[in-house]
Amino acid sequence: MKSDASTLIEEKFSEADITSRINEWEDNRAFIKGKQWAVRYDGRILDLKPGTQTRWGTVPSHTEMVTDNRIFPIYRTEKAKLEKNKPVPEVKASSQDEEDINAAKACSQLLEHYEYDLSLPMQRKHMYDWLVTVGTGVLGVFWNPNKDGWVPDVESSQMLNGRGIGDVEVMSIPTPQMRPDPSALTPEEMKWCGREWAMSATEVFDRWGIEIKPENTVSLLEGFNTFEPQNDIKGFVKIKELWMLPYKDYPQGRYIVKAGDTIVYDNVNPTCTQKNPHGFIPYVFFRHVTIPGDFWGMSIVGQIIPLQKVHNRTLSRMIENNRRLGYPPLMIEEGTIDIKRITGRPGEVLEYKPGFKPPTVPTFPQPPPSETFILEQTSVAMSDISAQHEVSKGQTPPGVRAAAAIQMLQEQDDSQIAPTASNIAYGMVEVWKMILHYCAANYLEKRAIKVIGRNNQVQVRDFMANDIRSYDVRVKPGTEMAKSPALVRQQVMELAGIGFYSDKFDPVMRTILSKQLDIIEPEQAYDSAYIVMNAAQEENRQMDNMIPVEVKYYEEHKIHKREHRNIMDRAEFKGKPEEVQQIFLQHYQDHCIYEPDPYFEVFKWHMQVQQISEQNKILEQQGKPPMQIPPRPGMPPPQEPPPKMMGAKPPIEAEQVPPSM
Q1: Among 50, 136, 316, 356, which residue carries the largest CB count within 10 Å?
Q2: Taking the CB of residue 401, how many other CB atoms lie within 10 A of it?
Q3: Structure letter (DSSP) for residue 289
């Protein structure tokens, strides 16, 4: 069977060859990194520079090869737009029965638990790197039988670490490793899928218990995990794995792993279980821009590369022409002047022999004015293709001053990402479904999951396979694509003004209008704020353990600051280690960059005064002079006094207050 498996896996990988695709993806990566004068040379990307030797000759040393990298900011902005989207899972009940409804809520809590326990946001971020670069990102969802899991503690109602009991594992897979079914036009049509990557011989033995001799021909090409004949990387083995759905000869599917020339695993597809006999391929493909009839997604980077080349060539030619006109050559009759004496200094006097023609400057044609026009047009075209105009870059378009108009332009740019956001939401639904299937097949004993209650307290609840009664997973409305905070605030203000959120408004009509207008209902708004508060409280726990937390520009800074102040204002905060206090203060100060707080300087001053006072006590015991307390920073100006009420008595001035008896 192993020989048959080896032949089968080689045939499938030969059918799924994507060498031409990988070459395109390597070009995309090179242009993002600024290697925009690169050519493919002996199977590698060679970045051309003046003086570079190639088989076509040597690049002249005087050649201008300027790179005005317009692709990198486009790549960075595109990633930032995608990272703002945070889809939230929601499991629908299979019926109106109360037990099914409660089971669906439990499954939603399970998926929310896995969102953070598996670091899904971080894996999505890694997947976005490939999605924006090559047009397709991949997440792999597996069951790791040796992974630690969480189990409930009956006595303390807390979570305990279950060593080696197995759990779900989600990871971002580099797109060039994948070898999908070439007959499939969409990821949903795949009947099989392969993956090729490198693994150390030690890890192969630990995983499958078979010793494989490392290959000297395995190389990782700049993170692409493609293989080139190299002898500089040793100790690795080429791994090929093949996942197949059920078919005639194998009604339970097939899963084959080949390490080097040895089949280390050949058995049924492990995702085919009694509850899910059809199984699935544990890879989810996310596509940036979908093209009918093309399995792979299209990247905007690849569409901008031709324009970037024209832009660089035009700019380089303009600079070279400017140098030629500013420092022109001289035409000198032979024997007229000693060329070695020419220095090129401004105002230099050149003596030539009488009877000869004086040195002259050749006449060059003026650069065509169209070159400046070409630079402008390529910049505009790149902005149009990427849907990133002035407002997306934090700039105000000329002649536009109204906030509403600027917001509409910003929404127009952001709306271009809507199809990609929809593809990501659909892919995440598939990921969540796979997680539920793994749990239904392997949660045979009680497991523990974290549940955040409405009192902002982390609770632990039990979960078993029998709790999974529905696999109808959807993205919670309003979380598929992030909205502008300014726009949401404006909507809430306007709706509150007409009593939309009051008890007098018909709740049925409010729900209907909320869905039609795509606005947040009060319950959903509470849940959204609740999620933000939970995230801020998780940051508090990390900082309390001396783990610095980076502030993201798109966070709800007001809510985060409030949750952090709840910790910093407590008396026990002053007794925490100084390193913890500094981490909190620095994190809070970073939030103040986006949401200014005039009282924060006074708060820091109080903390500093307390530290100096404690140090002065020590200095006093040592008989040393005390440290000086810095002056208190100025407080913000007081607010306007409230208007005087009719018949109210004027306030008593300080000097009019009668002495106490």
Answers
A1: 136
A2: 8
A3: B
Tokens linked to 74 = 């486009």
Q: What DSSP designation does 288 have?
A: S
Whole-prediction pTM: 0.68
C-alpha distances (whole Å) from 568 to each of 386, 466, 542, 585, 598 are 43, 43, 14, 8, 16
Higher pLDDT: 492 or 610? It is 610
Beta bridge partners of 167: 144
Q: Are 583 and 568 in contact (CB under 8 A)?
A: no
Please tell me the predicted confidence (pLDDT) of residue 159.
63
Write down the mean pLDDT value for the chain. 79
Distance CA 29, CA 88 (A): 31
Mean pLDDT value of segment 355-380 = 82
137 with 127: CB under 8 angstroms? Answer: yes
Report residue 435 CA to chain centroid gap: 22
Spell out the SS3 assignment of 293-332: CCCCCECHHHHHHHHHHHHHHHHHHHHHHHHHHHCCCCEC
Cα 339 from Cα 336, distance rounded (Å): 9
Tell me which residue has tokens 């000097």.
655
- For the chain, what are the domain ranges? 35-63, 69-120+299-328+336-342+350-482, 521-621
Burial 310-327 (b: 16+ CB within 10 A, else e): ebbebbbebebbeeeeee
Angle at 164 between CA 89 and CA 196, to 5 degrees: 70
Average pLDDT over residues 237-241: 91
Structure tokens at 185: 């036009």
